Amino acid sequence: REMGVGVGPPAVVPDGDAVRGMGWLQERLREIEVFQTLTAEAGNHQQLQRIAEWERRATAQLEARANADRTAVQEEFDESIGVLERLREEDTEQQEEQRREEERQKAEEEERQRKAQEEAERQRREEEEAERQRKLKEEEDARRRAEEEARKKAEEEQQQSQQQQQQQEE
């Protein structure tokens, strides 16, 4: 615990090596406790020195192993962060693509509506022109009938006038 091993929740679930490493650490700690007990009981200065050296080496090994485990966990954590960042970028790209697709569909719909309005306007103008042409034709036909009737009436009057002249001459 003094070295930071096992303090707080791990950032990433340790893999099998890390779990085995923790067991190894606990085993070494038990051995250190045993040697500390022996040291207390032993009065031999030389033996105490050998035990102290062994403890220093064991502590150095433990610290090295703990540092390696921390490094492995940090690397896994960094890798997970990288994956999350890539997923976030992909999501952002998908959202941007979706926005562009929606804008394209909106533009297409506006274009369809504009064309439909233009077609409706064109048909209305054609209908108005057809109606205007029909009225012109009706007016022209009425004018021709009136001219024809006037001509016929004039011919009839002329014939009557000629008949009257002939009758008067006779």
Automatic annotation (TrEMBL):
Basic and acidic residues bias spans? 96-156
Region Disordered: what ranges?
65-170
**Bias category Low complexity: which stretches?**
159-170
Q: What is this protein called?
A: Uncharacterized protein
Annotated source species: Vitrella brassicaformis
Q: What is the lineage of its organism?
A: Eukaryota, Sar, Alveolata, Colpodellida, Vitrellaceae
